[in-house]
UniProtKB/TrEMBL annotation:
This protein's record includes keyword Isomerase: yes
NCBIfam families: PRK00702.1, rpiA
Subunit text: Homodimer.
Protein's job: Catalyzes the reversible conversion of ribose-5-phosphate to ribulose 5-phosphate.
Similarity comment: family membership: Belongs to the ribose 5-phosphate isomerase family.
Keywords associated with the record: Isomerase
Molecular-function GO terms, alphabetical: ribose-5-phosphate isomerase activity
Catalytic reaction list: aldehydo-D-ribose 5-phosphate = D-ribulose 5-phosphate
Source lineage: Bacteria, Pseudomonadati, Pseudomonadota, Betaproteobacteria, Nitrosomonadales
E.C. numbers: 5.3.1.6
Organism: Sulfurimicrobium lacus
Binding site for substrate: 27-30, 80-83, 93-96, 120
Catalytic site positions: 102 (proton acceptor)
Annotated protein name in UniProt: Ribose-5-phosphate isomerase A
């Protein structure tokens, strides 16, 4: 099976976790497959909250109403992909640059269902560079602080987030304690948020493998 077929399989499996009402929808290629599956059951939905402009556009293209998060008190479920995930459900996200809105929508959701192909499951986070969204004027200051934490920040070239900020991709970061590191990076002035999703981990992982979709909780 190709990686895309594995992503499609988990996107299909995630539909079983979608109740009626309003749900949160992630960003990226796996989330895109999920949106395509969601379109088939759109009659069950009252709408969706999108974690990026790209996701909002794709939802609308399928005729799914996109709602402002401020008009919704709580979401039953948030479905999204990940760049890396551990058995403890800690993730690195933000490869697509949507980490801040993803983290906000995840925070408002009772259940986080992570959908990922088998290559994303790792013992230790850190091989995938850790994205950090930064207010543009603080870029150099934040980069120096991230270096002090042991990483090698690299500015994502030609990229601006949906919030008008820049991304520093931090290479070679030792991520032994994801909760501690997520908190420490968020303390740096000028950081909007970082791509560690450990303080609020996933609740369910649907992992695409050649043998089928594995459910981890
Ligand atoms: C976007 C993300 C994505 O969930 C992550 O990059 C995984 O993407 P893909 O499903 O394309 O592998 O965090 O900001």
């Amino acid at each position: 099976m190709t990686q895309d077929e594995l992503k499609q399989a988990v996107a299909r499996a995630a539909i079983e976790h979608v109740p009626s009402g309003i749900i949160g929808v992630g960003t990226g290629s796996t989330a895109n497959f999920f949106i395509d599956e969601l379109a088939k059951i759109k009659h069950k939905l009252d709408g969706a909250v999108a974690s990026s402009e790209a996701t909002a556009q794709r939802l609308r293209k399928h005729g799914i109403e996109v709602l402002d998060l401020n008009s919704v008190s709580e979401l039953s479920v948030y479905v999204d992909g990940a760049d890396e995930i551990t058995r403890h459900m800690h993730m690195t996200k933000g490869g697509g640059g949507a980490l801040t809105r993803e983290k906000i929508v995840a925070a408002c959701s009772r259940k986080f269902v992570c959908i990922a192909d088998g290559t994303k499951l790792v013992d230790l986070l850190g091989k995938f560079p850790l994205p950090v969204e930064v207010i543009p004027m603080a870029r150099s200051y934040v980069a120096r602080q991230l270096t002090k934490l042991g990483g090698q920040p690299v500015l994502r070239q030609g990229f601006t987030t949906d919030n008008g900020n820049v991304i520093l991709d931090v290479h070679n970061m030792q991520i032994m304690n994801p909760v501690e590191l997520e908190t420490a990076i968020n303390q740096i002035t000028g950081v909007v948020t970082n791509g560690l999703f450990a303080c609020r981990p996933a609740d369910v992982l649907l992992l695409g493998t050649p043998e089928g979709v594995r459910t981890l909780t």
